[in-house]
Amino acid sequence: MTLEQPKLAPAAGTAEPGKKTRTDPERLKAFARRLNLMLETLGLPERGRARLIKDRVGVSGATASNWLRGESYPSFEELARLGRLGVDPSRLFPGAAELERASAKPTLAAPAVSKRLARLIESDQLLPLTQLQAADGEWDHTALPNRIWQHLVGGDLNGFGLLCMKGDTMGERIKDGTPMLIDTNVTQITEDNAIYALLLGETVIVRRVQHRLQGGYLIACDNPAIANETIDRLGSHHDDSENARDVLVLGRVVLAIQKL
Q1: Whose CA is closest to 38, among 60, 23, 26, 53?
Q2: Which residue has the higher pLDDT, 194 or 44?
Q3: Phi, psi (5° rounding) for residue 196?
Q4: Cβ burial 57-89 (10 Å sphere, 16+ → b, else e)
Q5: CATH code for 104-260?
Q6: Cα–Cα distance measured from residue 229 to residue 247, given in angstroms and rounded to the nearest whole number
Q7: How confident is the model at residue 195 (pLDDT cuts 50, 70, 90)?
Q8: Does the pLDDT at position 23 exceed 80?
Q9: Where in the chain is the domain with CATH 1.10.260.40?
Q10: What's the CA gap between 142 and 158, in Å, rounded?
Q11: Residue 218: enclosing H or E segment and its boundaries?
Q12: Does the pLDDT at position 238 exceed 70?
């Protein structure tokens, strides 16, 4: 009877055959690419990311810069605090094959975004969604299967953003704080009595809009405490006009998310 030789654990700092060490340069660069990609998806410009990490995560500027350049990793404690930036720390360490297949992009991305949408995104009033590419090559939006999104919105999510109702209410279905999915591709009133997000100056309101037989539009609210109004013209968020009295169409509300 022949005894099997015990398998020795690899010495500290050495990798098992076919595996890379934690400090492998390729893994460090892959971590940095994923971190920068996530921050870009959140609309954070490259310039200033190190300062943002320093302020929110509580590390030195040099440490933050090293993470972004792929020269070091955060500790486990620092990795948990990266969640303060709005990123998912668990997605910062994908396998090499997954990293090659995966990519991400926001549903509202420059240069297609108008100046007004850009200001709303910058002020966190309008949030782009993240589109991640699944391993099989199909787009998987915010971890929900494509078929669910296609059923809800009738297509892909390019041009869609998440808007939270603030201030007045549209009745029981849309209240203060209700998240809504907005199709910013719709810049004209394409369907009467549908609900649209409108911009008056820097204020976003949500109303039902109808064409009037006499011309112009009826702006209605499901909340009886808010009176209906008529308006001669509705512009688009792409318009260059800076007239504070102009009412502009940000997009159509296709989905309001509420607790049951």
Answers
A1: 53
A2: 194
A3: -125, 150
A4: bebeeebbbbbbebeebbeeebbebbeebebeb
A5: 2.10.109.10
A6: 12
A7: very high
A8: no
A9: 18-102
A10: 13
A11: strand 217-220
A12: yes
**Overall pTM surpassing 0.90 (yes/no):** no
- Which part of the chain has CATH 2.10.109.10? 104-260
Q: Any idea which residue has 């808007």 for tokens? A: 163
CB 248 within 8 A of CB 184: no
C-alpha to C-alpha distance for 208 and 243, rounded to whole angstroms: 23
pLDDT at 223: 87
Taking every pair of C-alpha atoms in the chain, what is the biggest distance, in angstroms? 100
- Helices then strands, counting H and E runs in the chain, come out as 7, 12
Going by their DSSP bridges, the two strands 247-256 and 235-236 should be labelled as: parallel
CA distances from 145 to 24, 150, 156, 256, 259 (A): 34, 9, 11, 19, 21
Residue type, 252: R
Nearest to residue 127, comparing CAs of 197, 181, 47?
Answer: 181
Topology at the third CATH level for domain 18-102: 434 Repressor (Amino-terminal Domain) (1.10.260)
The arithmetic mean of pLDDT across residues 155-179, rounded, is 80
Joined tokens for residue 110: 């420059």
The Cα-based distances of 123 to 114, 119, 142, 198, 203 in angstroms read: 14, 6, 22, 17, 12
Task: Write the CB contacts of 72 (distance below 8 Å, at least 6 apart in sequence).
Answer: 28, 63, 66
